[in-house]
Amino acid sequence: MKRLVIVGGGYFGVDAYRAVLREAGREVRSGEIQMTVVSMGEHHAFHGWTGEVLGGIVAPAHMLTSLVGLLPRASFVHGRVVSADLVARKVTVHLPDDTECVLPFDRLLLGTGSRDALECLAGVREHGWCLKTPGDLHAFRAKLHAELRADQLGRPALRVAVIGGGFAGVEMAAAIAELGRARGGREVQVHLIGSGERLLNELRPRYARLAEYAERELRALGVELHLGPRATAVTADGVRLASGAVVASDLTLFTAGVAFDVLPGTLDLPRDEQGRLVTDEFLRVSGRDDVFAGGDAAVVARPSGGVCPTNALWAMKHGMWAGANAARSIQGRPLRRFSYGGLGQAASVGVGRGVTELKGVQFTGLPGWVLRLGFFAWYMPSRRQSVRVLRDWWQLAARGRRLDGEGTLNNSGVKPRSAPALLRGERRGPGRVEQ
Ligand SMILES: Cc1cc2nc3c(=O)[nH]c(=O)nc-3n(C[C@H](O)[C@H](O)[C@H](O)COP(=O)(O)OP(=O)(O)OC[C@H]3O[C@@H](n4cnc5c(N)ncnc54)[C@H](O)[C@@H]3O)c2cc1C
Question: Which residues of the chain have pLDDT under 70?
Fold first, then answer.
């Protein structure tokens, strides 16, 4: 019997599991290959809907999928891998009840993702908020919605600073600005702080048109952009910039960088300067034939040149290749070279407005937004959850329904409206969406 251990229940881990089943389903069913997935969380989190969850459009539970349900042919261990012994081929897992278990492996797949690089910005741990884990998102969402409630009307405008001019920062700034308008309670002023001269450098120069569109839409939503000097510190009163200026804020959201933790026992594995594991063209960690890696935690060469971006789609594709190759290496079959070419990228800048690049073709506005919606719904790990998310969207389109910070309905006084009317209404209406 061969043991295959996957560390991480994110995009990489789930797709690796599925690829092992595709490649070696018979061996898994017969018990010749025993698969175990270890994850610190009990759910797969689909981060693509983070802005929609903040905005009260998608219910928080709908972006989460139970890993036990997603991985029926694997043993699932809820815990944190605290060390790996690559000589004796075993990992040690710290379990929630404070005990430990040891999992031997013949093949180890590492998809531990990334975490917010909070150590890079003074004061952000104490005074900032982040969104990486479902708990982080829940806490910020509850706070934001409480501050925007109608009974807060009359208080000075809520100032929210979002640090990070990449996809996440842009989406969150748009979602918060739009939520403020839709809720019609306390006014909200959103400040987006980016250290580049322009937003969305990931899209430039090739897709600059998309980045320019997103920038215009953010300004139209009333988001104030602070581009250039980087944030140097977060305090209780705001964000200090390298220029000496201070952006006053009541809530500061950090989306500006990720870091990678090294599992004790894996220090000798090759890494890039950021700490990501270096892999070969078969997704094996360079120099090892029993350890595979991918997703945010690994640096993987892009077949067309350069390295793969760190995002969900690439993590899924890494999982597909790593899982298949791990199974094939157990079966003694030749491994497959990573050959995925990429599909595109997308971001939302509010309901009905998006930017999408699909195989080099650029879409903005409603087409860009619809493509993103379809793209994300398609790539969710569970069809049932995709349907629930689409139903949430329908509730917004048909009834104007948004959820409040506790996840309950908040559609009092909002008449059913047609989807196009809603999209128009949410687009530019000053203050509350026109009824
Ligand atoms: C707010 C936000 C919005 C985003 N929006 C988008 C978007 O719109 N589009 C997009 O493509 N990407 C988006 N991303 C990025 C995307 O989420 C990541 O690229 C993706 O999650 C990487 O997948 P992964 O499998 O490598 O890691 P993850 O999905 O983060 O999974 C890592 C897994 O490893 C587990 N783990 C970590 N360490 C251990 C350990 N020691 N022991 C056990 N388990 C461990 C974690 O519990 C988790 O299950 C967003 C990210 C954030 C934070």
Answer: 405-435
Question: Which CATH number is 2-40+79-112+263-331's, of 3.40.50.720, 3.50.50.60, 3.10.450.710, 3.40.50.300?
Answer: 3.50.50.60
365 CA distance to ligand 1 middle (Å): 27
What is the pLDDT, as a whole number, of residue 410?
A: 45
| Residue 157 Cα distances to 51, 56, 146, 147, 417, angstroms | 21, 20, 13, 10, 28
Tokens of 69: 């349900």
Q: Structural domain boundaries of the chain?
A: 2-40+79-112+263-331, 118-256+345-424
Instruction: Quote the radius of gyration of the chain (alpha carbons, Å).
Output: 22
pLDDT at 151: 78
* Topology match between the domains 2-40+79-112+263-331 and 118-256+345-424: yes
Q: What pLDDT does residue 405 have?
A: 62
- Tell me, in angstroms, the distance from the centre of ligand 1 to residue 296's CA: 7
d(CA 9, ligand 1 centre) in Å: 9
- Ligand 1 geometric centre to CA of 164 (Å): 17
The per-residue pLDDT for 260 is 94
pLDDT score for 419:
35
Per CATH, domain 118-256+345-424 is 3.50.50.60: yes
DSSP 185-241: SS-EEEEEEESSSSS-GGGTTTTHHHHHHHHHHHHHTTPEEEESSPEEEEETTEEEE
Report if pTM > 0.90. Answer: yes
> What is the predicted pLDDT for the residue at 179?
94
Whether ligand 1 lies within 6 angstroms of the CB of 53 is answered as no
CA-CA distance, 136 to 53, in Å (whole number)? Answer: 12
Residue closest by Cα to atom 21 of ligand 1? 312
Please give the number of the atom of ligand 1 that sits closest to the Cα of 347. 8
Ligand 1 centroid to Cα of residue 101, in Å, is 24
| Residue 150 confidence (pLDDT) | 73
Closest approach atom of ligand 1 to CA 312 = 11
